[in-house]
Design a protein that fits this description.
- By secondary structure, the protein is of the alpha+beta class.
- It has 7 helices and 8 strands; from the N terminus they run αββαβαββαβαββαα.
- A hairpin with a 5-residue loop joins strand 1 and strand 2.
- Helix 3 runs antiparallel to helix 5.
- The longest helix is centred in the C-terminal third of the chain and has 30 residues.
Length: about 220
């Protein structure tokens, strides 16, 4: 039941508001809303008078930015029709997480072991992040009024972070500090999970008639 609810919830998040189907070649607008490229282009043609607006919030459409992260999540979702059947081939656990470093779905055990030093988020978080990144890439984040990156949950770690430059002159976003913060948070989450696991082991050693009282 929980697996079916997760599938339904994720599918809703990955549904285009225009065609009411799973995103195809998703693009993000300046307002951070995403649509299928064909859907939003057709919507723009149907309203030639005046500047095109977002069908959801009526903000100016602006330039259409490909949402690669959202596209990847959609592809992963479509590769396995039923989320409950998406098992890790190594550990047999559900692929509930998303590794942003390797761009693949992983299970909780993978996130602790082989992807320990990677940025791991849930599939739902990955979707929301794709919306935020699409908004920032399209320029919406430039109007942020927050004084510091840490004070803004939407733009934390974006343009305020200095860029790293290689010897050949190629620049990359300076996300080292952000990755360290995510790693520390993940380590804490892992520690909490292991603590709960130990508690459950103790719990199941207690006779059933005492378990309800001791474990709850």
């Amino acid at each position: 039941m929980a697996g079916a609810e997760a599938v339904a919830g994720l599918r809703e998040e990955l549904t285009c508001a225009i065609c009411l189907d799973i995103y195809k070649d998703p693009v993000s607008l300046g307002c951070s809303h995403s649509f299928c490229r064909v859907c939003i282009e057709q919507a723009r043609l149907q309203h030639p008078q005046g500047p095109p607006c977002c069908p959801l919030c009526h903000s100016p459409v602006g330039e259409l930015k490909p949402n690669f992260l959202l596209r990847n999540i959609v592809q992963k979702f479509m590769d396995a029709p039923v989320l409950a059947e998406r098992k890790c081939p190594k550990h047999g656990k559900l692929l509930e997480c998303f590794c942003e470093d390797d761009w693949e779905c992983v299970c909780i055990v993978c996130s602790i072991v082989s992807h320990k030093n990677h940025k791991i988020i849930t599939l739902e978080e990955a979707f929301k992040e794709s919306q935020v990144r699409g908004s920032w890439d399209s320029g919406a984040g430039k109007d942020c009024t927050m004084e510091t990156p840490e004070s803004c949950p939407w733009h934390r770690g974006d343009s305020w972070v200095p860029e790293l430059q290689t010897q050949d002159g190629i620049s990359y976003p300076g996300t080292l500090e952000t990755l360290k913060n995510h790693e520390a948070a993940l380590d804490q989450a892992i520690a909490n999970l292991l603590e709960k696991l130990e508690g459950l082991k103790v719990c199941f050693k207690v006779p059933y008639h005492l378990r309800v009282v001791s474990c709850w």
